[in-house]
Write a structure and sequence with these properties.
2 domains; mainly alpha; nucleotidyltransferase; RNA-directed DNA polymerase; elongated; transferase; two-stranded parallel sheet; RNA-DNA hybrid ribonuclease activity; RNaseH-like_sf
Length: 145
């Protein structure tokens, strides 16, 4: 089973925090983690969302020992380390994937993506900029009857 991009980015943050915890925090007191997944950073900021509570706890533990910053950077903007990480992620797509569970939102996203692809193939002439779609539902209905 494939996971969502969000879940993969979350796992990358967890792995970065593990590296900081196990190696870097012993030699450095200032750590900056660059991340191009704004959605993960927003979820970390939203304390009502409990999905990342374990990550928040690990962040707090590390922040007691090092000056830790999670910094958003734009993806695909020729930042060397980010481009290298993206290339490694693409290589990983071809490897066997670890079994993972999906939460409701992830399942919904994956279904939406899969259904959208099939819909585009079966309705190749669909153009949402067509004037027909600017009409209200009550005016569209008689045209189809």
């Amino acid at each position: 089973m494939r996971c969502t991009n969000y879940k993969a980015e979350t796992e990358a943050v967890k792995e970065a925090l593990n590296i900081v915890n196990n190696k870097i925090s012993k030699t450095s007191k200032v750590v900056i983690i660059l991340i191009d997944a704004r959605s993960v950073l927003q979820t970390l900021e939203n304390t009502k969302d409990t999905d990342l509570d374990t990550v928040r706890k690990k962040l707090l533990d590390l922040m007691a020992r090092v000056e830790l910053t999670l910094q958003w950077i734009p993806g695909h903007s020729n930042i060397e380390g980010n481009e290298r990480a993206d290339n490694l992620a693409k290589l990983g797509l071809g490897l066997d994937q670890e079994e993972t569970t999906l939460n409701y939102q992830e399942a919904k996203t994956m279904i939406k993506v899969a259904a959208g692809g099939r819909s585009k193939k079966s309705h190749e002439d669909f153009n949402k900029r067509d004037d027909f779609y600017k009409l209200g539902r009550n005016k569209q209905t008689p045209l189809f009857r």
